[in-house]
Amino acid sequence: MAPPTGALLERGTSLKIGQSPRTKCPPPFLSKTYDILEEEEEAIANGQRIVSWNYEGNGFVVWNPAEFSEVMLPRYFKHNNFSSFVRQLNTYGFKKTASKRWEFQHDKFRRGYRHLLHEITRKKCEPSAFPAYLKASEEHKSTTLEGNARVLMEENKNLRRERLELQMQLAHFKTLEIKLLECLSQCISSHGHQRKIPRLC
């Protein structure tokens, strides 16, 4: 059974003179996001999922953010920036509901209930407001960078130690080479000296 549409007038009510049956349109961002999910519902059978409604139909999951940014966003929006898309969701009150995947929910954003979209309003907040999950993502990035820097520093220290050891070995071999050359020189000179001594009869 299809849900009732917000655009339909209730039975038994009539329009007063001068009153027009204006329907409240949902924000374009929400309509386009809903359209993406409806289009993807048809495309899922053909291959890998990029984005879809969750199992309950009360939220959606971006399974492949890179593909979503490259393929889906430019088709519906004037950008291909996933972070911008997530910030927009946040301004309309969507919540990220899973820690290991990009799943978002809103009470009024549900499969088969497009008529509820006009009830979703933009949050009144400072432009500087930054979603907690994006902040967490940034923190995770910085933690990862710190970890990588630590590994590189440790590797650098090991390489310096190895270099020092090799330099010491090289110095040792050079000393051995000098000693061998001296020894060889002495052998040659003593051998030559012996040849010059006249033989006594």
From TrEMBL:
Compartment annotation: Nucleus
Pfam families: HSF_DNA-bind
Keyword annotations of the record: Coiled coil, DNA-binding, Nucleus, Stress response
CC per GO annotation: nucleus
Gene3D superfamilies the UniProt entry points to: Winged helix-like DNA-binding domain superfamily/Winged helix DNA-binding domain
The organism's place on the tree of life at top rank: Eukaryota
SMART domains, sorted: HSF (SM00415)
A biological process from GO: regulation of transcription by RNA polymerase II
Boundaries of every HSF-type DNA-binding domain copy: 25-123
Family, per entry: Belongs to the HSF family.
Name of this protein: HSF-type DNA-binding domain-containing protein
Originating species: Fraxinus pennsylvanica
Lineage of the organism: Eukaryota, Viridiplantae, Streptophyta, Embryophyta, Tracheophyta
